[in-house]
Structure formats: structure tokens, C-alpha cells
Amino acid sequence: RGRRRGNMLTKVSAVALVACAGVAEAFVPSSLPSLRSAPVNARAAISSLSMEDPRTKATDTNFGLQKNKGGNVWVPQRARPRRNRKNEGIRSMTRENEVKPSNLIYPLFFHTAKENEPIPSMPGCERHTFDSVMKEVGEAVAEGVSNVILFPKVPEELKTNSADECYNDGGMVPEMISRIKDKYGGQVNVWTDVALDPYSDQGHDGMVSSDKRGDGGMGRIMNDETVDQLCRQVVAQAKAGADVVAPSDMMDGRIGAIRDALDYNGYTDVSCVAYTAKYASAFYGPFRDALDSAPRESSNAPPNKKTYQMDPANSREALIECALDAAEGADMLMVKPGMPYLDIIKLLKDNSNLPISAYHVSGEYAMMKAAVERGWLDEEAAVLEALLCFKRAGADAILTYYAKDAARWMNK
């Protein structure tokens, strides 16, 4: 009895509120009478109230859903997003993002040996011979990939702390650039990595000091001295025919210095893509296996690259790097790694008018390959989805070891 009385009081209160609303509505002034809503009819409102148990009503009408004119169940919702997904013709017409082979950059490892060598931690990737690089470039171009980037595995005897081999006009990278440009010319843009680690006997992107005043009582990564070497490196690469230089070292001020070095030497048309937000990530392991470029435990160098690469915990710091690189003359900004840092790609896209590129790094590639080998992923579907995610986050260009395969899948 108490429950029924409570329900009745609730309904009476509702009726009173409806009636008051009708009275109030009648006295609301309006300069546009035709746009005023019709006054609430209190009597009709009262008569519409039901004293039935709502559970019984829901059961009678299929859990509260209505029925349409034909007697079928009906959800009275005018806006139905699924209508724009109903077939491929509609889906493709309304698709917001699309990845094409022209968005991809194909990285190639190469060495001076006479045979290709597989990279165990990167199934499907190899250290190529010079001739094999030429073949790979031709196959990529045939699939519509018009950008490649070179990563050399430098012989150990040529490595030094100052990394002087990096600007040898007759070195591996200048020779490879010249061969590619001589054969393929304007069909392909040749990108170069700009950093000292492939040429360093310390395994760092910069020169290491001989003192113990650095992080953890180890040597310091010397910023300005390293930038001086990088300027020599890019001039040698541009002289050989490089279309794009991509400094990955993360030294302060290097973009402006590199831009000035290129311009002073007459290479004003050579593009500079800054690794703007390169994080001190655990996802680089397979890459360092490929080039033997990890920090050396026996040296005076720090055991990691945390004093110059960014802290994975930080995002706002990327905006500082973004502003500096743009002001210093970068033509494009890069985020590395890729998939775990989609938020950073989006952050830079929202805060810069420069094109954004993303690096789908070796650790991401290795994880996908491992899952594919175990039958846990459909490789083609998973890779194309991952690349689409980069594009959706804001990447205009994507550097990926899957570039040639992905382009072939896109072209099917």
C-alpha cells in the first residue's frame, strides 16, 4: 500500500509540473509568435499518463521498442550512421583517409659484402649488396613508391668517435646515392639518414667526450661538435645527389646549421626532414642489430641515448622541438616511433602547418612479423590497417619496412 501511495504521489507531482509548464508558457513573450511552441495541454498530458507497470508495457512492446507501420520492430532514430557504411560504393565515397604508395618511404639497409645477409630480428629484411639495393629500388618504383632512404652498415675498421667517415665523398652512402640517381633519376627521391651512430665506435648519434661529467658518471654527448660533423655529412650527401636529408640525431640547433650548410654550398633545393620527436624508445632494437649501432658497453659512452632523445613520458616537449625545427627551416617533421606515438603525430599535425611523417620502426615491424609467423594476424590486413592509422592520426608520409609489400597489396 505504501508503495502504491508513493507511485501515485509521483504521478500527481508530474501532472502538477506539466500544468505549471503550460501556464508559464502562455505568458512567455516572443517577438516571433509563429516560432513559439504550442502551449502544453495539461488535460492531454494527464490522460497520457499510464498507471500500468512499466515492466508489463516493455514486455508487450518487445522490451520498449516500437513497431512500424508494417508491424515490425522499429527503433525511432532518424540519424543512422550505418547508412553511410551499407556498401563499398558509399564507404569509398565517404572515406576520410586513404594511404597510397606515394605516401610511403622505403628504408634499405646495405653493406659492402658480396652477398645479402638476412637480419634475424627483422624477418624479410636484409642487409643488401649495392646491386641488390638497385633491384629493390626498381621494384619499389614499379609499385609506385617514389621515396627510399638509405641506412649503411659501415665496416668496423672505419668507425671512430669523430665519425669522419660520414662525410667521405667516396664512402658507401655517396656511392649508393650516385648509382640510384644515375639509373632512376627523377623517378625516385633518395633520402639519407643524418647521424653519427653508423660511423661511431661508441654507438652514439654524437661524439662522446673523454671526461666523466655526463649522465651516470660517463662521457657526455657533445652537441656542438657533433653538429659540425653533421653539416659536413649533409654536404657530402647533397653533392652525391641526395634529394632529402633527414637528421635523426636529436642534437640541439642542428636543423638551422644543416639548412645553412646546404644553402651556403648551393644545395638550396635539397629538402630537410627533421626527426622532431624522436623518443628514447625500446622499439629500436632490431634496427640496431641491423647496423650494429647500439651504444658500446666497453666505451666511455652512456649506456643509452636518453640525454638527447626524448622521454617517452612527455608530449608537450614535442611542441618545443616542433617550434624550433620549423623556425630553423625544416621542410617536414617526423615522429619516431610510430604506432605507440599516434597521439604525438596528432599533436604535431594540430600545431604545425608543415607536413608530418611517421616512422613505423623496426620493433613494430618485428612484432607484426612474429604474430604473422604464428598465424595470429592476417599480415596484409593488419599492415594496411596500421598504415591507415598513421594517416588518420595526421601523417602525410610513412617510413615503413613494409613499403614495397604494402604498395603491392594496395595495387591489387
Explain the overall architecture.
- The chain has 412 residues and is α/β, with parallel strands linked by helices.
- The chain is 40% helix and 14% strand.
- The chain is built from 14 helices and 14 strands.
- An 8-stranded parallel beta barrel has the order 3-6-7-10-11-12-13-14, surrounded by 9 helices. Strands 1-2 form a two-stranded antiparallel ribbon. It has a two-stranded antiparallel sheet with strand order 8-9.
- The longest helix has 25 residues, at 2-26.
- The relative contact order is 0.11.
How do the helices and strands line up, and which of them pair or pack?
Elements: H1 2-26, H2 42-48, H3 54-60, E1 66-67, E2 73-74, H4 88-94, E3 104-110, E4 117-118, E5 126-128, H5 130-142, E6 147-152, H6 172-184, E7 189-194, E8 207-208, E9 221-222, H7 223-240, E10 244-247, H8 254-264, E11 271-278, H9 285-291, H10 316-327, E12 332-336, H11 342-351, E13 356-360, H12 362-373, H13 379-393, E14 397-400, H14 403-411
Parallel strand pairs: 3-5, 3-6, 3-14, 6-7, 7-10, 10-11, 11-12, 12-13, 13-14
Antiparallel strand pairs: 1-2, 4-5, 8-9
Helix pairs in contact: 1-2, 5-6, 6-7, 7-8
